[in-house]
Amino acid sequence: MIAQDSLSAPDLPFPIFQISHTIRRYLLYDINTVTWLRRTHNILGVFIGSLPQSPQQNIFLGLPLELQPEEATLLLEKGLAFIADDLQIHKKAINSSPKGLTEYKATARREAFATAKAVVKHKQLKTQEVLQRLNVDSLAISSRGKTIDKDEPDESIFDAAQEPSSEPISSGTVPYSSTPTTSYPPMATPSKHSSSPLPEVNASSYALFKHLHASGYFMSPGLRFGCQFSVYPGDPLRFHSHFLAMGHDWDEEIDILDLIGDGRLGTGVKKGWLIGGAVKNSDTNAITKNAQSSAAEDSEDFHVRTFCVEWGGM
Question: What are the E-state strand segments in the chain?
Answer without folding.
Answer: 14-18, 26-28, 46-49, 62-67, 81-85, 218-221, 229-232, 243-247, 272-280, 302-309
